[in-house]
Input
Amino acid sequence: MSFDIIKGLATTFKNMGKKPTTVSYPEEERELPPRFRGRHVLHRYENGLERCVGCYLCAGACPADAIYIEAEENSEENRVSPGERYARVFDVNLLRCIFCGYCQAACPTGAITLEREYKLASYYPEDMVYHKEQLLEPKGQATIGSNTVWADPAPANAAQPVPQASNVFAGSAASAPAVGLGTARPEEEVLLTNEEQDEDRRKFEGGKDRQKR
Ligand code: SF4
Ligand code: SF4
Output
């Protein structure tokens, strides 16, 4: 027993002079790696329009089913994004999210990025569903966020990728095909037929067999 105490004290004294590997959070914070993925941000163009065109590609690419969108048509009286539609509702459930960044990779307009906000805690689970109002960058702000480190820069002549003067959609190279959705094979029949087995199967004709028993 006494030997254990000596061993423990020896370990303590051995490490006393060493630099600690922990930091005194929250007074002190670690520097995050450049490709850190934290909470999502929805971005705007410089003219104030929202980049999100309500295309659902991010929701389709999300492996955790964490994104919920309700899109609505733009109108001349109420133009929110440059596309046909905009996201009236855009929720991200951060309890489901695994911060994989697939939504960012799938977005053709650079509307959604994962940024450096990691202080995500709450007493209530419903507070962890972040709504568009919380995710959208404020008016007057127009950044491309972590796309500076993750995506190819937009062509110089396309500061606002959609719609182009040529009326051709020319968004980011990362889109549905980039995450495999554009090349998804059509649904295949999964029930294989096995003639031998099928023969052995009892025919079920309107429950007659069962009633006979
Ligand atoms: S980071 Fe991954 S899990 Fe989270 S919302 Fe985006 S696609 Fe879904
Ligand atoms: S992929 Fe981009 S543009 Fe499409 S709904 Fe998601 S955030 Fe909006």
Summary: The CA atoms of residues 8 and 145 lie 48 Å apart. Residues 2-16 form the longest helix (15 residues). Residues 158-188, 206-213 have pLDDT under 50 and may be disordered. The pocket of iron/sulfur cluster (ligand 1) is lined by residues 61-64, 66-67, 92, 97-103, 114 (CB under 6 Å).
